[in-house]
Structures are given as structure tokens and as C-alpha cells.
Design goal:
By secondary structure, the protein is mainly α. The chain has one domain: Aminoglycoside 3'-phosphotransferase, Chain: A, domain 2.
Amino acid sequence: MGEKPTKLFFKLCDPGNSSFGNSEIVYYTTIAAEISHPPIPHCYHSAYLKEQGKYHLLLEDLSDTHAPNRNVKPTRERATKTTAAMAQLHASWWNHPKLSLVGEFPNRSKLEKYVSFAQGGLAPMLDDVGADLPQEWLDLIHHIFDKHGEKMIERAGDGKDLTCIHGDLNPGNILSPIESSGRTYLIDRQPFDSSLTIWLGVSDLAYMMVHWWDTEIRRELEKPLVKYYHQQLMKLGIGNYPFDQLWSDYRLCAMQSLYVATAWCVDTIERKEYKWVWWPQLKKTMAACVDLKCVELLQ
């Protein structure tokens, strides 16, 4: 039976008018089950009321040994552990025959829905801050919305290099060890209806760095971490995925951070109340898109 836990973490989710479905239960059960020693807390029990969209999870309690990354400056050591956890999640589900159990494939319909939702916030966002943006950024923003979605569709078209992604690795969803030893855990996978759940694994790495990290830290650690991610994938048996392709995929995914910022602006109340979140994210994203010469991918 193994050693019994002395305490557990109980999560009760009542999403109100919106619904995450059973995706988080799938994450802690189905997804975790396919990973050897998963970077996901162990789930002892779960239940889901489909009609009401409510669910609960009884999870391993890591509060004595781990803490979320909120208000913590990224370091190479901390980021490396997180990158290793991502690679383990992605490699375990890479082109997996059961991928359909963990999300929707990124076909044209799904990707158009994903981009279309974010595009609904573009005009309100630019009405608010457009005058404060450099013309180069404004031109690139419009160019991304014109061309990027089709480039995502092209990349997903052959069905290769697709995996289960977390999709929301913000600092609060990354549990790093309090002491230097120990591994990192990835928690709270709660995608919205328009979110991508199956996609290029490196999108999680781009999501973590591009619009959450200060630009100077991203510039310092970005390329080393992408290289480390590639090394980890190879160690975990992912072949025929050259680094040049991975780096191109990273640049493609970096542009998705623009959709994160504009999605905050779809709802008028969120746009106003959460400007402190999306406005810095927008500036960091556009700086990254220029640094990475993302426009080259849109030709």
C-alpha cells in the first residue's frame, strides 16, 4: 500500500457561468498516468458533475516542500528544473496514440476559433494603448493577426510533433522546490473552450518566458533554455526533431503571447481592471517578437 500521507490538498472548483469541463481531472489522472514519475502532484480522488461543471480533487500536499513562483525572480537553476518538467510532460505524450483523450487536435477549425477569440480584444486594446506603442509594434501587431493563424495551421497540418501541453504556465502554476534539491511540479491545467490543449510543446516554454519574465532576463536565458529543452527531449527518446525546427517553433509560439494580452481585452471590465496584467505582457511580447525577428516567419 505504501506510506499513507499525513495531510492532503483538497481543491473544489465551481466555475460559475464558465466551465473548464473535466480537463483538470484528466490532467491529474489520465495525463499523469502516462508519465513515469510525473511532474504533477498525485491525485487520490476526483469527482465531476458534468451538468453543473463542478469538480473536486484530492491531491498530494506539497506545501511543506514547494512554493509557487509568484513574485520570484527567475533564475537559471529554477528555470532549468521547470524546463525539465515541461520536457517530461511533452515527451510522454509526443505523437501519442491516445492524444485525443486529453484535448482537441489543432485543426483549422480549432486554431481559427483560438485566434478569433483573441482578435475580439484587438480593437479595444488598441483604442486604449495604441497611441503609446511604437509604429513598428503597431504594424507588427496587425501583421501577426493577418498572417500568424495561417502559419499555425500550416505547422499543425502534417500532425507531427504534437503533444499534450499545459497551456497556462504562469508563475502561480509552477511549484518549485523550496530547497535547492527536489523537482518542479506543474499544476492547475484549466483550459478555456477556446484554449489549445494539443499543440507544439515548446509553446509552454514560450508562454513562461515571453510575457511573464522581464525582457532582460528572457534575453539572457531564452536560448540556453530552449537548447536545454531540446536536449531533454532527445534524452527522453524524441528523435527526428532538429534544433532548427524547434527554434522556429519557439519563435512561432512566441507570437501567441500577443493573443494572451488581447484576450484580456475582449471583456470591457477585464480590460479595465486587469490592465496591470495585460499591458506589461503586451510590451514584453512585442519586444520578444522584434528580438526574435518573428516577422520573418510571416512571409
